[in-house]
Amino acid sequence: MKVIIIGLIITANLFINAVQANNISGQDMYNTCKGNSQAEQGFCLGYTIALMEGIKIGAAQILAAKGTADATELNQLIDQTLRFCISNLSNVQIKDVFIGHLASKENLVDSTARQLFIDAMRDTFPCN
To answer: Rounded to a whole number, what is the distance in angstroms from the first to the last CA of the chain?
Structure first.
């Protein structure tokens, strides 16, 4: 238990400046996701889930404010707006796609993890 708490504190400290600036670099995210500790793996999965949910909620709020009331229609518009369509994948599978995308990039320092996540989803799960 102490190891997990210490790991969480260390991981949180790694990202405190980036999070305050609302940006985590792709390199920082990749390094964390490739880490061996439970804290790093937990952060990686949690951040990936938060990215997915946050991006979709943000799009939903904008679209709902424009008068889209039907949930099915709203979900279709979210997919069209974000330009990626994901179905029947676990959060772990989505995280694995994201890590694979990060691994394929040469310069991760200049890009935010958020933008790289969106790019990964668009490249891997384009809407038909």
So the answer is: 46
Q: In this structure, are residues 114 and 23 in contact, taking their beta carbons and an 8 Å threshold?
A: yes
**Predicted pLDDT at 107:** 81
Longest CA span, the chain: 50
* Model pLDDT for residues 51-93, shown as the tens digit of each residue: 999 988 888 888 877 776 677 888 888 888 889 998 889 999 9
The percentage of the chain sitting over the pLDDT mark of 70, rounded to a whole number, equals 81
Domain extent, residue 92, equals: 2-124
Domain count, the chain: 1
Whose tokens are 């994901």? That residue is 86
- The overall pTM is greater than 0.70: yes
The span from the CA of 107 to the CA of 115, in Å, is 13
- What's the half-sphere exposure (Cβ side, CA atoms, 13 Å) at 116? 28
- Residues in contact with 15: Cβ distance below 8 Å, sequence separation at least 6, in sequence order: 24, 28, 32, 43
What CA–CA distance (Å, rounded) separates 72 from 75?
A: 5
In this structure, what DSSP letter does residue 25 have? B
